[in-house]
Every structure is written in C-alpha cells, then in structure tokens.
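--- STAGE predict ---
source: upstream dedup step, 1 unique chain passed
mode: sequence only
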Amino acid sequence: MKNTLIDPALVKRSMESLYIDDLNKASIRQMGGIVRHIEQESGTEFIHFEMGVPGFAPSAIGTAAEKKALEDGIPSVYPPMEGIPALKTETARFFRAFLDTEISPEGCIPTVGSMQGAYASMMLCTQLDPKKDTILFIDPGFSVQKTQTKVIGIKSVAFDLYHFRDEKFAPKLEEYLKAGNIAAVIYSNPNNPTWMCLCEAELKVIGEMCTKYDVIVLEDLAYMAMDFRTELGIPFQAPYQPTVSHYTDNYVILMSASKIFSYAGQRIAMIGISDKLFNRDYPVLKERYGVSKFGQSMIQNILYCLSSGTAHTPQYALAAMLKAANDGSYNFVEDMKEYGRRSAKLKEVFLRNGFNIIYDKDIDQPVGDGFFFTVGYKGMEGGELLLRLLHYGVNAIVLSTTGSQQQGLRISASAVKPHHYRLLDERLRMFTENN
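--- STAGE serialize ---
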C-alpha cells in the first residue's frame, strides 16, 4: 500500500495487539482500541466515526436535578425497583406528549441504559412460551443486541430490511412469524446504523402481525424524534414519533436518555410496557417465579437480579428533563438537529471523493440526515474498505457487524469537530488517489 498517512506495519501491529485479523468481526470497542493504539504510537489524530457517543454537553436541567439529589443524600438510599414516582409519571406523560401513546406510570420502568432494557426484555420474552425461543432482528441493527442473545443463550434470526421495504415487507415478516418460534421482534427507528425510518404502513404491518401471531415487539427508540425531515418536537401536538404502539398491545418501548438528552454516562433509560402486556398472566412465569404477570416478573425478578434497580440520582435527572420537555420549556429535538447538519456536510465530503451512500432511500424518498449514515466505495468489501481507511486516519465500523448484507461502513456524525471536515476531505483525496 503506497503513500499512506499511517505506517502499514503499525496498523498490523495494532490489530494484532487485540487479536483482530478480520475487521468484519471487530466490535465498536475493539475498533476504538485499535485506533487508540495507532494514535499513541503515531501521534496522528484520527477522525472517529466508530462510536455513537453524544456530541454535546449533558442537559443542564438533568445535571442540576442530579446535583440536588446528591446534596439531599439520595445516594444513601436504595432506589425503588419500579422507579421513583416522579420519573414514572413524567415518562408516561412523555409517551403521550411525543408518541401519542397511553402507557400507565406503572408500566414505565427505569433501566441501566437501553442496553439493559433490551437485555431484560429479550430474556423475559423467551421465557413466556417454550415453543417461542427465538428473537427476530429487523436488520441492520445495534450489533450489541445480537451479542446479548449469545450471552443469554437464546436463538436469533434476522433479515436485512434493504430489499424488503413497502409491499415486500409484510410477506417477509410473516415468513418468520408464522413459523411459531418467534418470541419477540426488535428494531430501531430511526435505524442504527442506516438512519432509515420505518413508515406508518410498515409499523402497522408489524403491529398487526405480532398481534396475529402473539409476538412481542421491542421498539428501540434510542433516537426518538430525530427524523429531522418532520417537525416532531412539540409536546402533545401532531406530528408524533411513529410507533408500533398505535397498532398492537404487544409491545415494549425502549427510550434512552443517552442521545436525546446527551446523558449517556449516567446509564439511565426507561422501558414502557403496554398496559395490556404489563398485566398479562403467563402460567409459565407463575411456575418459574411465583408471579404470573409480565410486568411484575420484569421488575421483581429480571431487573432485580440484573442490577437491583437503576442508580438513584440519575432517575431524578431524567425526571426533570422529561418534565421540562413535556411542559414545553425544553425543546430537546432542536438541540439534536446539529447531528443532521453534521451528517449532511460529511456526506458531501464522502460523495465528492467517490464514495456512495448505501442505504440511501426510505422507500421513495432520500434517507434523512441524522446521527448515522452508511458509505461504500466502488464495490469494495466492507472489512477491506475499513482496513484501507485506517491507513489514512479514518475509523468507522463495518456494516456486517450490524447484520447488514451490504458492503460498507457505518459513519457516526456525533464526535465530529469543525476542523474534521477539511481533514476528512484531505485524507479521502489521498485515499482515492491511491485506491
């Protein structure tokens, strides 16, 4: 490889230090480790597109509320397993305000980030019926959720949404559900890594089919209201965040403070369980836990054993941020629009240098600009593309790690700084000249 910014021998050593020989199998954290090693050895700043970390300061509303809770001595008290009352109330209001969905405060439960919410939900869903032991991923998706199924020891299957939008979606989904072994379906909307958004017709298909086949939907709204093509930030006023909860009672919503409030470090999120599902009795749960109801099994058994509750003071922070959003005094969506502006600028640089956007359409319209997007280069295999870009000081993750069948990379706009646009243009020009 000629005229590279980074010594190929250093790239090779850095990969070997983490026992990585194929970047198609490297996790986000492993890619970060490889690049940290290269940066330390070379003194060259990388452009980091691999980590979907918040790019803004945490909400001052949250930090002020948490400081007060700390000063009030809250850390000395174990948190209630079901969550503090104010947080449960404001979460239920938030679902009404921004999703137009009614969930009782009882079914609004804090978790240690949406990672724990997904883990706990997949675990419980596969315990409800011995015949239903498999999770269906609508891919691409958050790669760690697949790792979670491996850690739990449950089965999973998946299909890539790329080829099955619109009228092709229902037959493909039913192909899996009618087999009778699917316990839950999981997807993110907007989608990580592609930023595609399921349309109302597709959400209706998911809801109706999951009702028909008695399957639970795990709807990951980590990037809720961040489809900036539509103004979604006014509480209790249409348009609302699209959600499957309008089409079925078999759902658990995962809602995180990490991105929408830039509160990732405190690992605070909520799950919203529909009233019908929360109160549904499952004989197998009675036999297993002595408690038959879905919601109580989630709180008293699954979450209790995972972490004995969610850290106390971040609950006060999230309650305050949700209340401000619900009251209309804090427009969190407006703050997040900067991610869209960053993505638009980055896409322009990639396209100018011969790259293409892989997941480029939401059925009949261009995919929006947001937290993530995807790129490819002249049909190059994803792992090879990333390997070559490492030699030019650019890091990302390979789409294959997200369940995608397409060849390319996921790009996160979250950590981009103003000087990176020029730097990226220079490095991609050098890359294209040599590739």
